[in-house]
Amino acid sequence: MAKNDNSYHAQKDKEQIKKLDQLLDELPKFCKTFFRGIEQTTSSSTRLGYAYDLRIFFNFIREKNPLYKNKELYEIDLTLFDHLDTVDIEDYLHYLQMYYKDDTEYMNKEQGVKRKFSALRQLYNYLYCHNMIDDNPASKVSTPKLRAKEIIRLDPNEVADMLDQAESGVKLTKKQQQFHEKTKLRDVALLTLLLGTGIRVSECVGLDVNDVDFDNGCIKVIRKGGKEAIVYFGDEVEDALKEYMEHRLELFTPVEDDLNALFISSKHRRISVRAVELLVKKYSSLTTTLKHITPHKLRSTYGTQLYKETGDIYLVADVLGHRDVNTTKKHYAAIDDERRLKIRNAVQLREK
User: Computed over its alpha carbons, how large is the radius of gyration of the chain?
Assistant: First the structure.
């Protein structure tokens, strides 16, 4: 069943569209044409991200090019592209590594530079394909290469300890313990759900009570791009969810707008992504000080364990909602290395 217009995801969509409209009033007028053109193939969050990234590009132009120094962004027209070549775009990529705005320093690592270049390349491609500009130098500039990062995840003993900490609260500060008795059922249920299904934090906070189906042992989530998906959970997740949901309205009194939200904050509203990030940080720091654990790291933890148990990379990709199995392979290649190491003596060439 489709989400109604008052759902968390529908409301977030409306908010992002409103922010995008406000940003478009700042940006060059031809940007409106571009964003209308990609509306049917991108999510509102993707378009909003592009708009923020393109604003950085046009501010760079205004800062570095004397022709545009005294212009407002919305006054920049398509003649700009007659003066830009591959060297200008490469200068922009270099600028992104560290720049200043309003006396504040901004830095981008490879991932940030790549994302901002992707927004610019999309704009160039659209304008060029629609005959609005004569050349596409962005297509001739290489995409910034990302260095392979070690995947940070919790070990099985750390997972158990983190859940124990959330349940007992013995290592929390005295101030934290004042609230712990009220929030522990929610915290344990939320962490168990993240660790036991690998759903994204945005999918978690968007859950409503009627998205949980105990008869079939599953939840209904909205994936990236707005696609609905069914995610199955095991007995441990079921037990934690049932215990929390049984006492949910006793512990929290949600405001009317968030009455159906599964996870409620102490402010009586649907819990936010930021609140979940802080919750994960609080309990994981009691378990390990050497690993920086975020909700996404809990997702990696689940994916790792599922791959170790099944050895089926396609199943893991499907469960995690990866559209490209290569994304999954990249994240869990280290496990294959471990397996290859273990079987190095599996084939005997001569009897010992």
Answer: 24
